[in-house]
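User: I'll paste a sequence; please echo it back and then give the predicted structure.

Assistant: Echoing your sequence first, then the prediction.
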Amino acid sequence: MPAPRRDQALLPRPTRVSLRSGHFTFDATTALHATPGAEAAADLLRDLLRPATGLPLPPSPSGTVTLAVDAGLRGLGREGYGLTVSPHSVLLRAAHPTGLLRGVQTLRQLLPEEALVPVTGGRPGPTTERGREGGRQGGQGRVRARPDRWDLPCTEITDVPHRSWRGLMIDVARHFHPVDTLRRHVDLLALHKLNVLHLHLTDDQGWRMPVAAYPRLTTVGAHRAGRDDGGPPGAPGTSRGGTLPHTGAYTRADLTGLVDYAARRGVTVVPEMEMPGHVRAALAAYPHLGNDPDRVLDVWTRWGVCDTVLGVHDAVLDFVRAVLDEVMDVFPSPYVHLGGDECPTTEWQHSATARARIAAEGLSGPADLHGWLLERAGAHLREHGRHPVAWAETGSVLPPGFTAMSWRATAHAAEALARGHDVVLTHHRTTYLDYAQDEEPGGPPVQPGPVVDLRTVHRGDPDPRTSAPGAGRVLGTQAQLWTEFAPTAADLDRLAYPRLCALADRAWSGPTPWPDFARRLTAHTRRLDALGVRRHPTPAAPSEAAAARTAPSP
């Protein structure tokens, strides 16, 4: 079976592709011409290609590769682009500079996969406790001969995303992952035209972001002790049935550097600071923020939902504002995630302070304190021009003005839309990548739950619909990598890929036929392998004939 042309194996699939004969050649004479507003995209293309190809790609007004911002291309929106490759020139156009960044990734995929990887002296493959590892067929930083010429197939592409929010959440609270690992995932997100890295920075098991006014959040809250009865033998982070000590926190420079690195690739880093529940690490550092100020707590050494939650006295409101001020200072994202789910109310039921707050605010009972506290945190964000986001356990409990991440049931997304919430689709049965991806016995430990295989992620969920006046919008979707069972960089790779490819395809392209996606993925795995991605095995692609019968015309 002949391999498809590279412009027939793009992932995600472009909106429209017109194949042309011939090819354009990048060589030592190739120069880049960037019109005003396109300089950042030209710099990114140069920075990404030069380590692999050795080509200088200098700027020149007569360059044969032109990157242009044209505000008149209104139909392309913020992220769309048009790409024309002819034998003698390449023209990449967009209405907004961000669209050019998406087109740069298409140019990379149109080149041979060797053009994705530095020849030598580049970033090495990811590091695990077992040492440096490359990919299945090579890896970053490998030594190889470097061609003098690199061919692009002649083609014409018009491409506009289906959804505006296309992301991946990485939980760095349960297991800390260094900033170099996160940068590598930013590169992979950008390659797949995903535009959000959602960082779950705090939880019962660890607090990873420094807050100047509360230094113990990281000097105490970032360190988890071992215990003798923390989990089943063989599970990640356990030894002979007990959990292992674990530690890690970012510096402010780590996080601001990550934000800048991601922004240059068109990826927004959305921070998440959990509240009012999932705060055991914060309460271990500052017990007075809880409902029993005399209690001494540890950073939680178990998985699951802890029943310790924030108190509702004025010191807690001061704490929340101080944390969010620091978050907004570090992360320019228009969205800030407040967690908001799995918040037991038992402590509030037994707290005299909580009962006084209920009376003073005219609330009906302890359960209302959840929304009351979230509403105040959200109001503080909105006062500074930011949008609060929270996990939605139902479609009807978040305060007005919140963006809802609907994860428990598909019906909740429609309910949230009807109440006016914007929604990001995060249903656990189609986007949670910590679940098993096949039914093969004897594999690595995974989160107990349903199998979420590649085809399930590709199929996704039907778009929720509502006819309610003032309904919210579906912003998009994202995958979730909870890390109870992902302590290493290799684990993140194995859980994310290739399933994240399926989510990227659906989020950018909309629903695509399975045979068409599987055929493109088979070719795309060569890119993943070149990049050293330690992926889960992919199913065999359908025959070309079967793919042709089911694929829509370009």
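Residues 312 and 354 are 6 Å apart (CA to CA). The radius of gyration is 24 Å.
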